[in-house]
């Protein structure tokens, strides 16, 4: 909504090519915001050139993410679900050429609860109090997707999940 921090859309042009990333927030099980379906229609209507369009859909409900994927199929290059931190195994190219995955995963500690210290998360769940969550800082991983896009059509050709594990966090941060 108007007044919310951030931009919601980033447009970059390089070598006569347009690269656009749009961030949407879902409404199911989330704090109320603009309708992401109507909002994406408004944003796409403002774009006057063709290019690679990646939609980061920050949402809780898998059904809402899947519906967005089909809603945008053929209109954007990829719809990538985020927010739950747990990668899903449903990456695919939708019928009209949009790459889709319900959740790309997270970058964070392997032995953690969504990147936070296990003990902190357990205290919060066991005692029902708003206990402070601290980031876990042991072995970590980077999760995401690699997407191949045909630059003549801006349709996805391939999507592949990636996961890289790093065993020594301390040496990476120094």
Automatic annotation (TrEMBL):
GO molecular function annotation: 2',3'-cyclic-nucleotide 3'-phosphodiesterase activity
Official protein name in the record: YmdB family metallophosphoesterase
Domain of life: Bacteria
Matching InterPro entries: Metallo-depent_PP-like, YmdB-like
PANTHER family found in the cross-reference section: 2',3'-CYCLIC-NUCLEOTIDE 2'-PHOSPHODIESTERASE (PTHR36303:SF1)
């Amino acid at each position: 909504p108007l007044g919310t921090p951030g931009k919601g859309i980033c447009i970059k042009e390089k070598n006569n090519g347009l690269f656009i990333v749009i961030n949407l927030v879902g409404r199911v099980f989330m704090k109320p915001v603009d309708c992401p379906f109507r909002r994406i229609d408004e944003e796409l209507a403002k774009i006057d050139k063709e290019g690679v369009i990646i939609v980061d859909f920050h949402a809780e409900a898998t059904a809402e993410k899947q519906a967005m994927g089909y809603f945008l199929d053929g209109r954007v290059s990829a719809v990538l679900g985020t927010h739950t931190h747990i990668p899903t195994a449903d990456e695919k190219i939708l019928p009209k050429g949009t790459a889709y995955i319900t959740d790309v995963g997270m970058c964070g500690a392997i032995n953690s609860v969504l990147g936070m210290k296990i003990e902190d998360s357990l205290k919060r769940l066991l005692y029902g109090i708003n206990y402070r969550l601290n980031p876990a800082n042991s072995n970590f991983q980077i999760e995401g997707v690699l997407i191949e896009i045909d630059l003549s059509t801006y349709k996805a050709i391939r999507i592949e999940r990636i996961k890289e594990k790093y065993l020594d966090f301390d040496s990476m941060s120094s």
